[in-house]
Design the sequence.
């Protein structure tokens, strides 16, 4: 069998690349070693985590947030088995959806482990150990990423007591005490799930701030709001040991700046210290495909590796490890392979943290603009001054817009607030079109909506807000 494109890995990068390539008339196969398509994102990442975040938020609201609206409910009881069944059903409908799209687009989906034999040749081994060799004009490496441990610390992840994000999506009971090592997106999202369901959650983070890399003001506000919900933070803390102890585990950490070590106990420890590119068993060194210093498949601006006919996209190459970044790369590469001009605008990739409230950002942070020596202006608007937010008792947070001081072109947008992950897209579209804060501030927004806070922040950037 000979193909135009063989894609190894069926995550958001691989499956989207496959569909787009097939739509453009190419003959495509996708090789996936998991039993179902959709990669990390659909099976053990974005989708199951959002199913649990939604369900746990409903549970929390039923127990906390309704009395003041005149809705009196007796204390809710948790049926964790049913909540997990909701998550599993959500995953199943999404992964089945990818299988359906493969059929619809006449893509050959092959379950098995893919290995590059050489440019133009890929071997696939199924679970019975049977190997077949497929021929292709182009090979796309879309093998994603895997859990990274704690640098310099040996940790035995058993997915029961010491868990990764994968175990964190399937605990059989709510732990009384949970320690989350790592105050990044995954740690805070899964920490929120278990905190809402009743666990006492402590986040231990190496940096002085959570959500490192996000706008400083935004991460401070997010931390304040999560602390109000009962999550404890140990910042500037370097974890030196995570060991099982009886039925639970102990985490030892010391101040990064120096000082005495502390040890805390937990029933469950979630290791959420990041992810590493997944290239094991792919035959890359035999095929001569170069990796960069961080173990990622090295690619140029057109997703080409150093070997002609072999490409890389998604988490396995440089850039933010986000599903939509992988998808956009998949589309761009399919277009390039079909002889068109594919392109990804890396300056305008939104990022969302699905805590409650959500945290969302696109473009530059204030810290990045300062470091680059770019003169900028800031406009902010708090949800406390937004009518819809008051009506929904969702007044936590603010919108912040950063624009070039000279040209008024919007360079960054940051939102902490209910629905931030949806609202960020109007700033994203504006930035994609090179718009100014005045463009956004003069765009009519429906009333009453949370999005009016985005408009007001834009008004504040180029002149003055109306409602403050
Ligand atoms: C808990 C969690 C929550 C997340 N939430 C979000 C979110 O809300 N939003 C967001 O944007 N991102 C989120 N992410 C990140 C997101 O999942 C990744 O950025 C995304 O999945 C990357 O897509 P990909 O196609 O590059 O790789 P992946 O989705 O990792 O897919 C790669 C696939 O390749 C397969 N594979 C690997 N090697 C081989 C081989 N040799 N042969 C055959 N198959 C192989 C793997 O089995 C896997 O299925 C989350 C991640 C986690 C862990």
Sequence:
């Amino acid at each position: 069998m000979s193909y135009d494109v063989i894609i190894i890995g069926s995550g958001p990068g691989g499956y989207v690349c496959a569909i787009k390539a097939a739509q453009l008339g190419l003959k495509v196969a996708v090789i996936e070693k998991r039993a179902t398509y959709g990669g990390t994102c659909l099976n053990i990442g974005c989708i199951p985590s959002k199913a649990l975040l939604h369900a746990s938020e409903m549970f929390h609201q039923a127990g906390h947030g309704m009395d003041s609206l005149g809705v009196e409910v007796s204390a809710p009881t948790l049926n964790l088995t049913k909540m997990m069944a909701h998550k599993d059903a959500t995953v199943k409908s999404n992964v089945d959806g990818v299988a359906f799209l493969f059929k619809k687009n006449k893509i050959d989906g092959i379950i098995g482990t893919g290995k590059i034999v050489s440019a133009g040749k890929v071997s696939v081994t199924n679970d019975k150990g049977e190997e077949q060799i497929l021929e292709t004009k182009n090979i796309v490496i879309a093998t994603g990423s895997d859990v990274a441990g704690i640098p310099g610390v040996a940790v035995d992840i058993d997915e029961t007591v010491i868990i990764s994000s994968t175990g964190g999506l399937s605990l059989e009971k709510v732990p009384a005490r949970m320690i989350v090592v790592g105050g990044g997106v995954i740690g805070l999202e899964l920490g929120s799930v278990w905190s809402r369901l009743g666990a006492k959650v402590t986040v231990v983070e190496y940096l002085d701030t959570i959500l490192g890399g996000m706008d400083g003001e935004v991460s401070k506000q997010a931390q304040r709001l999560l602390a109000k919900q009962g999550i404890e933070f140990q910042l500037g803390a370097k974890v030196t040991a995570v060991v099982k102890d009886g039925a639970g585990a102990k985490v030892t950490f010391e101040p990064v700046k120096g000082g005495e070590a502390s040890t805390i106990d937990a029933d469950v420890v979630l290791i959420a210290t990041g992810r590493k590119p997944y290239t094991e068993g792919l035959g890359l060194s035999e095929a001569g495909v170069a990796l960069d210093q961080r173990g990622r498949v090295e690619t140029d601006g057109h997703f080409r590796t150093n070997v002609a006919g072999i490409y890389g996209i998604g988490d396995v190459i440089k850039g933010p490890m986000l599903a939509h970044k992988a998808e956009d790369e998949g589309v761009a590469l399919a277009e390039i392979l079909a002889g068109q001009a594919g392109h990804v605008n890396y300056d305008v990739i939104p990022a969302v943290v699905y805590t409650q409230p959500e945290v969302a950002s696109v473009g530059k942070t204030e810290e990045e603009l300062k470091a680059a020596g770019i003169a900028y202006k800031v406009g902010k608007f708090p949800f406390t001054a937004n009518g819809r937010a008051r009506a929904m008792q969702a007044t936590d947070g603010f919108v912040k817009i950063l624009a070039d001081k000279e040209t008024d072109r919007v360079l960054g947008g940051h939102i902490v607030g209910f629905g931030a992950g949806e609202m960020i897209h109007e700033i994203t579209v504006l930035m994609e079109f090179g718009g100014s804060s005045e463009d956004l501030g003069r765009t009519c927004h429906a009333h009453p909506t949370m999005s009016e806070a985005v408009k007001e922040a834009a008004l504040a950037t180029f002149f003055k807000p109306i409602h403050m």
Q: What stands out?
A: The chain has three domains: 2-147+276-337, 162-273, 351-462. The pocket of flavin-adenine dinucleotide is lined by residues 8-14, 31-34, 39-41, 45-46, 49, 113-114, 142-145, 165, 186, 278, 281-282, 314-316, 321-324, 326, 354 (CB under 6 Å). The radius of gyration is 23 Å.
